[in-house]
Amino acid sequence: MLERVDRVQLVVKDRQAAARTFGEVLGAQPVREAPSAYLGASRLVLALGSSEVELCEPSGPGPAAEHLSAQGEGLMTAGFSTRDMAALKASLERHGCRFASEGAQVYLEPSETLGMRVVLTPDTARTSVGLVSRLYEVTNTLTSDWRAAADRYTRIFGLDPSRFSPIASEHFGYVGTLAMFNPKDRLDRIEISQVTNSKSAMGRWVAKRGDSLYMCYVEADDVRPIIERLAARGGRFTTRGADPATERDGLWVHPSALCGLLLGVSRTTAGWEWSGQPARVAGGR
After folding, report:
1. Which of 10, 28, 131, 166 is 20 to 30 A (C-alpha) from 52?
2. Are 21 and 48 in contact (CB under 8 A)?
3. Rounded to whole angstroms, what are the CA distances from 216 to 62, 83, 115, 119?
């Protein structure tokens, strides 16, 4: 029932300043103001590729203010789209999952998942904007058993576990699975990662926050302009390869460079290399 990873919500201190940063780094563009009583936030929505980023500046009590107080600026919510909201709501109800509606969107608190706040939105086709093509992944980091998370999302979101792709990394210190939505066509998925190394960056994150939302990933047809913009601004980033001057496959943008958001960027189709179908990577390495 999930169609795409179509948005994320970030908590920021100043939504206009954050919008300028996203514009200068990724070419994102503001499209509308959308205040949220549920989040307690003044919300500025940006177009980022064919996806959206919702910049949530606290305007009163609520999840946005609580997140800013506890964790500072950064990623608060994973956003998925669906073509059949009625069926998805029925599935949530059938599995005893509490949710709240605001306008066309539906919210799940972190207590209903494995520490991952979720917003569900009706699927909409959009024209791509900026240097990024689309969002395609959010990462749910865990101290608890990744299999329980995979089972929970399979049931409440109507996913097919036969489509999932196992993952493990000694370098980054995790084990888990990619809960793919529709791998025949797209990379959209929830990365479910159980920490195996408490000293890794992910391990330190989970030690402070427990089961939680960690980062997200985007595709870009060309990663070079993003690298060049970051370098010109003095923004921190790490490329997949050793030499930033020749990197073409991907990078990680440090939270300090993007309003508290840890963002992975991969060249279009390159994500299939670690998603169980390396033959689908276009152009080789």
Report:
1. 166
2. no
3. 23, 22, 15, 15
pTM for the full predicted model:
0.97
Alpha carbon distance 182, 188 (integer Å):
7
Structural tokens at position 275? 């998603």
pLDDT tens-digit profile of 110-126? Answer: 999 999 999 999 999 99
Category of 267 on φ-ψ map: left (φ > 0), alpha (ψ -120 to 50) or beta? beta
- If residue 259 lies in a helix (H) or strand (E), which one and from where to where? none
- Tell me how far apart the alpha carbons of residues 109 and 77 are, in angstroms, rounded to a whole number: 9
Task: Output the pLDDT for position 205.
Answer: 97
Angle at 52 between CA 194 and CA 42, to 5 degrees: 100
Establish how many alpha carbons lie within 13 A of residue 141's alpha carbon, considering only the half-sphere containing its beta carbon: 24
Q: How far apart are CA 35 and CA 274, in angstroms?
A: 38
Report the distance separating Cα 149 and Cα 217, nearest Å.
Answer: 20
Query: Helix (H) and strand (E) counts for the chain?
Result: 6, 16
Specify whether the CB–CB gap between 99 and 91 falls below 8 A.
no
Q: Which residue blocks in 9-130 are alpha helix, DSSP H?
A: 15-26, 63-71, 85-94
Each residue's pLDDT tens digit, 160-206: 999 999 999 999 999 999 999 987 779 999 999 999 999 999 999 99
**2 phi, psi to nearest 5 deg:** -85, 135
pLDDT of residue 284: 59
Cα distance between residue 113 and residue 117, in whole Å: 7
Give the chain's mean pLDDT. 96
Any residues with CB less than 8 A from the CB of 243 and at least 6 apart, and which? none
Please name which of 255, 271, 258, 262 lies closest in space to residue 187, comparing C-alpha atoms: 271
Tokens encoding 243? 């030499």
Q: Beta-carbon neighbour count of residue 143 at 10 Å?
A: 16
